[in-house]
Design a protein that fits this description.
This protein has a 6-stranded mixed beta sheet, with helices on both faces. A 4-stranded antiparallel beta sheet has the order 10-11-9-12. The chain contains 11 helices and 13 strands. It is of the alpha+beta class. Bound molecules: adenosine-5'-diphosphate and magnesium ion.
Length: about 375
């Protein structure tokens, strides 16, 4: 990929720029906890966006996307927003830096990536954080702190791409560190690195490649349930709720709200338990908690679907250590912690059986926890 990018840069602009990269991410555990003030536990992966970039001394940005095979040119004022979706991520990053008082001038860039698009690995965050990191280095003497870089990516999604996302994806992509996961406290924004000790195991994503579009917005409905229960308990978010307090108001809330809140309270604890287990190198406990999360997402939070439950069943039958839905639900991937000695068997079984039932093979993405945004 690096070679292709360099060749394209030479061909289009002459000479070479500086190479930057940033990564997609996984989240080991901690689902639907972000908007409840709880914890998430992501890490950057060995699937990246790479860009060769060089200031061009004008007020125009010229970018070539290798994967889309398209060239776009835009100015740096609000009115200059490009029409192409992929270019809006880059334009948005420029604008968000400028809006914060930072400096961005014209530049030439060529970029490519291997983060699967729309699979839940956050290719968009990789793209934003690659450019945010680069423009901070090239035009701002690295004066913008890393949290602000993550927020620049998040605001890009909100203001230029129509995606109302949280901070986890950009955080993971900017702060990612080889061999480490990061526990982020979504209330205080404090974070801690944990070595990802899974000796004898691999991490692999199985992508169902289905996405169920639902009529009413299930995400907003889940949020509203959580907010109603928190209000009833007289607290800001479910972060401060306990199972005992929830049980005490069980008769005053709907059964649906009860189970939604129960999941969130349990999930918050599971993230902490998984961190402890990882520190002991106890993969069995990590895996058990992943299955519990799947169960909770499926039965209590009701954001699973037939295909994801089927993938989870196959994992269980194959003796996979841990498996669960990753992401918001209703399709996408499961994340699986698999012992090395059953890995090949699991991959062939899950591919074959899923294909047998749904008529298409799932996509398989083995991942290694790697560095986030950096200069190459
Ligand atoms: P994801 O879950 O992967 O973040 P999104 O829909 O949020 O999915 O972001 C995908 C979008 O990001 C693509 O439609 C494209 O505009 C942009 N993108 C991601 N990777 C690339 C790439 N390698 N080249 C060009 N654009 C990309
Ligand atoms: Mg995205």
């Amino acid at each position: 990929m690096e070679k292709t990018i360099k060749q394209e840069f030479e061909k289009r602009f002459g000479g070479e720029g500086t190479m930057y990269a940033s990564a997609g991410r996984i989240n080991l555990i901690g689902e639907h906890t972000d908007y409840n003030g709880g914890f998430v536990f992501p890490g950057a992966i060995d699937k990246v966006i790479m860009a060769d970039i060089r200031p061009n001394g004008t007020d125009k940005v010229r970018v070539f996307s290798v994967d889309i095979n398209e060239n776009v040119e835009f100015g740096l004022e609000e009115k200059d927003a490009p029409a192409q979706q992929w270019a809006r991520y880059i334009f948005g990053v420029c604008r968000e830096i400028i809006k914060r008082g930072g400096n961005v001038k014209g530049f030439d860039a060529v970029f490519a990536g291997n983060v699967p698009l729309g699979a839940g690995l956050s290719s968009s965050a990789a793209l934003e954080s690659c450019f945010a990191f680069a423009l901070n280095d090239l035009f701002n003497g690295n004066s913008i702190d890393k949290f602000e870089l993550a927020k620049i990516g998040q605001s890009t999604e909100h203001n230029y791409c129509g995606v109302n996302c949280g901070i986890m994806d950009q955080f993971a992509s900017v702060f990612g560190k080889k061999g480490h996961l990061m526990r982020l406290d979504c209330r205080s924004m404090e974070y801690e690195y944990f070595p990802f000790n899974i000796t004898g195991h691999k991490l692999v994503l199985v992508d169902s490649q289905v996405k169920h579009a639902l009529v009413d917005s299930p995400y907003n409905k889940r949020r509203q349930s959580c907010e109603r229960v928190a209000a009833k308990l007289g607290i800001d978010t479910l972060r401060d709720a306990t199972k005992e307090a929830l049980d005490a108001i069980k008769g005053e809330i709907s059964a649906e709200d009860y189970f939604r809140a129960k999941f969130v309270i349990e999930e918050k604890q599971r993230v902490l338990d998984v961190c402890d287990a990882l520190q002991r190198g106890d993969c069995e406990t990590v895996g058990r908690k992943m299955y519990e999360t799947h169960e909770g997402l499926s039965k209590d939070y009701e954001v699973s679907c037939e295909e994801l439950d089927y993938l989870n069943d196959i994992a269980r039958r194959c003796g996979v250590t841990g498996s669960r839905i990753m992401g918001g639900g209703f399709g996408g991937c499961t994340i699986n912690l698999v012992k090395n000695d059953i890995y090949d068997q699991f991959i062939s079984t899950v591919t074959h059986e899923f294909n047998g039932r749904y008529g298409h093979e799932p996509k398989i993405y083995p991942v290694i926890i790697s560095d986030g945004a950096h200069k190459c």
